[in-house]
Each structure stands twice: as C-alpha cells, then as structure tokens.
Amino acid sequence: LNGTRVHSYLKRTDGEFWRIMRFDFIEGAPYTTADLDAHRMVAVINESTRTKFFGGAHALGRAIEVNGQRFQVVGVLASKGQSLGFNMDDVVIIPVASGLRLFNQSSLFRMLIEVAAHGEIDAARSDVLRVLKERHEGEEDVTVLTQDSVLQAFNRILGALTLAIAGIAAISLSVAGIGIMNVMLVSVSERTSEIGLLKAIGAPPAEIQRVFLVEAVL
User: Where do the DSSP E strands lie in the chain?
Assistant: First the structure.
C-alpha cells in the first residue's frame, strides 16, 4: 500500500472483528478462521479503496501490495462512514498475524471488545484492566474507552459549546440594550423643548412616555 498513491487506513484484525463491527459486503466475504490458521495473505478492502486501485472493475481474487507484500482481495465492504474516529470508507483490512509480521511488531494498538448487555460494561472494563495489568508486569499502561465514556465526553463538549454560545448571546444582548438606552437618552435630551410643549398643552406623562417607547421599539 503506497501512501503516495492511495491514502488508505490499514487495519489488522482477527476473525471476531467482522461480528463486532457488523460490516456489509458488496463483494465476496470476510476471511475465515481457516485463512488465519493457514497464514494466507488475504485482505478485505472498501469500495472507495477498490475504486482507487482497480477503478470500476471487480476486485475479488486480484492482488494489492501492502508494504512490499502481495495480498489477495477476498471481500469488498459497503460504505460505513466514520467509526471510532477512523474513516471506514478508505481501508485495507488484513489478518492481525500478517500485519504483525509485515511491520515487525509484537504488540497491538487497539482491541475491540463487545459485551452482551449494557449493564456489563463496567465489569468488563475492570476485567480488561486487571488482565492487561497482570500481563504487563503490574503496570497499567493501557486506556480503556467505553461507549458511555465517549458519550460523556461528547456531552461535556456540547455543554461547553452551549455555555459559550449563551455567553456570546448575553454579551450581544447587553451591548444592544446599552445602545438602545443611549439612543433613548439622546432622543429625550434633544427634545426637552418638545416635551415641555406637550406638557404645556396638557399631555399626560404616560402619553409622553408612550411616544418615546414606540419610537424605541421602531
């Protein structure tokens, strides 16, 4: 996958990835456990990536090159949009073991974990942290993000934006109110003689006040 030719996001996965992500395929199918056990060099791409590599032609059975290694395309995904902060409409998905060998890595960047019910999220999070801490020699060097925590983060951001907009609106209203008061003050001070004339001919204070209020509203 030459980054100068096509900008695709590479994901290294195992067989459970398809069940958790619930992808729809427009061509072919996901690679199987047998493919993983046999260490076959297979890949699943997205429709956008297929267009960049092969144009409008079918991609199944054809080869793409990732970091100097050829992979056979076994499936093409339907459009999915953003997922977990990544653009899933521009991807190449290969088996995790192939990815680790290909890039000479011994560890994973991210794991996706699915629970059966919402009420099990907190317990699952604790279990994940405990297991990983045990395997990392007692060091808690991972971050666990749950759907609830992501939602809370978005709610905090939305709350901050709401307060900022409310503050801007309050400042705008204050400035506008001061401007209107200044206009009314100037209007009254410049028409002192007119007010005196109205009083002289018997106009009540309420009527005079109503004249200036109507002008201010207009």
Answer: 9-13, 25-28, 42-46, 63-66, 69-77, 82-83, 86-87, 91-95
CA 120 distance to own-chain centroid: 24
Structure tokens that stand for 107 in this block: 């560890």
Side-chain-side CA neighbours of residue 108 (13 Å): 15
d(CA 190, CA 184): 10
Q: pLDDT digit string (tens) for 18-49?
A: 777 777 888 888 887 778 778 888 888 888 88
Burial (CB count within 10 angstroms: exposed 0-12, middle 13-18, buried 19+), residue 191: middle
Residues 6+ apart with CB under 8 A from 181: none
Residues 91-146 pLDDT 10s: 788 888 788 888 787 777 777 777 878 888 888 888 888 888 888 888 888 888 88
Which helix (H) or strand (E) is 163 found in, with range? helix 147-190
